[in-house]
Design goal:
The chain is built from 7 helices and 22 strands. It is α+β, with helices and mostly antiparallel strands.
Length: about 425
């Protein structure tokens, strides 16, 4: 340890000088920070977007199942065992072609029995005709003898009764023959129905039977095949919400998308908007039929398709972002409790077509009422005095004073996390 007093004094002066330098630097830094804070322009910062000019397309999006334009279900009108199946899935068939056959043995027996019944009734008819002729001869003879007073009146009455009875038997047997012939026709028809033939030219898309299977047609015709007439033309039956059905018209352009071909759009058109409604869980929809061309047979029956229908299109119109129509300045939002005066001449429909945007002038928003047109989900067509392409409209605002005083809670200005404005619901 040194005993030199001058060395100790030098060390103390060095420490004091370092302390004063540190104090000075802190003071200078604080002054610079205070100056920057005072000189920074605070207040509202407005986020804006340009009014653009272009096309607005109003679309309706829905979904449905892909179906053939003409689809026929082939069933069986008779019960029995499937003896033969002559076609399979995806086979092309022609009208009248034999698809399958039900064992005809029981029905052939029924036809033979019906024919025998008809033959028996015809034999009875022949006998009845002979009896009728004999009764007629007896009646004529009794009438002639009575004219000569050679027999009694009772003989004439008896012969007349026998003639009437013979004619009645003849009528009964004739009616029975008609009934037996009808039964024969039914038996022959049932026998013919054991041959399942194609009613159209088309493609087999469903086969529900195999050889040896028994089908029962007691209550309803069982489905054996489903045929599609032409798979190059398909249709999508989509359920359209009741709020959009008034916008649909026949011959409107439609695009269909399926999961099997992502990114592909199949062009079609609206061919029918049905009047009958469908209610599902309290939601009312209306079926719309969209015909879609399928020349490459890429669309298959049963696929789920998302359909976009072009309901309307306006070209070269002024457009604003929907955020601009929802924006309300903070000072206006604070006065929302004050009711605005109502125009008695403005109808609800007219009010629904009007909106408000705030045009940015000298860093201040100016209220402008506009007429609303078509909307595509992100932008809306607007018209109004003073509107022009390139004009800035406010979409949101940021209170920079609040953001500066509460940095922990304030978001990034670029993100609009501490926005002081209020958006109106659309």
């Amino acid at each position: 340890m040194s005993n030199d007093p001058f060395a100790e004094l030098g060390k103390k002066k060095s420490r004091a000088w370092i302390a004063w330098v540190v104090i000075g630097l802190v003071a200078v830094g604080g002054g610079v920070a205070w100056f920057k804070k005072k000189s920074r322009p605070l207040g509202m910062r407005y986020l804006s977007a340009h009014i653009s000019r272009g096309d607005i397309t109003e679309v309706i999006e829905t979904s449905g199942n892909v179906q053939p334009v003409v689809q026929v279900t082939v069933g069986s009108q008779v019960s029995g065992r499937i003896a033969r199946v002559l076609v399979d899935f995806n086979d092309r068939v022609t009208r009248g072609q034999l698809l399958a056959e039900i064992d005809p043995t029981p029905l052939r027996a029924a036809v033979a029995q019906a024919r025998a019944a008809v033959a028996s009734s015809e034999a009875q008819l022949a006998r009845a005709r002979v009896n009728a002729r004999v009764a007629r001869v007896n009646f004529d003879r009794a009438t002639a003898l009575r004219a000569q007073n050679l027999n009694a009146v009772a003989d004439v009455d008896t012969s007349r009764g026998q003639l009437d009875l013979a004619n009645a038997d003849l009528a009964v047997i004739s009616a029975d023959i008609a009934r037996q012939r009808a039964s024969l026709t039914t038996a022959e028809t049932n026998l013919n129905n054991t041959r399942i033939v194609s009613p159209i030219d088309g493609v087999v898309i469903t086969r529900s039977i195999d050889e040896g299977q028994t089908v029962a047609a007691s209550f309803q015709a069982p489905t054996l095949f489903v045929l599609a007439a032409d798979l190059t033309q398909m249709r999508v039956v989509a359920n359209v919400d009741e709020s959009d059905v008034s916008k649909l018209r026949e011959h409107q352009v439609a695009l269909a998308r399926v999961d099997a071909f992502p990114g592909r759009n199949f062009r079609g058109e609206v061919t029918e908007v049905r009047f009958g409604s469908v209610v599902t869980s309290g939601v009312v929809t209306y079926p719309a039929v969209i015909t879609v061309a399928n020349p490459q047979l890429e669309l298959r029956p049963g696929m789920t398709a998302t359909v976009t229908v072009v309901a309307n299109r306006h070209q070269a119109v002024l457009r604003v972002p929907n955020a601009a129509l929802r924006y309300t300045p903070a000072e206006v939002s604070a006065q929302q409790g004050v009711a605005e005066p109502q125009d008695p001449l403005r109808t609800p429909e007219h009010a629904a077509r009007r909106g408000t945007v705030y045009v940015l002038e000298n860093n201040r928003p100016r209220r402008v009422e506009v007429e609303l047109g078509l909307a595509d989900g992100t932008r809306t067509e607007v018209t109004g005095p003073g509107l022009r392409e390139g004009l800035d409209v406010v979409t949101d605002e940021i209170d920079q004073d609040r953001a500066a005083s509460s940095p922990a809670r304030g978001g990034s200005p670029g993100m609009g996390g501490s926005g002081g404005g209020r958006r109106r619901g659309m």
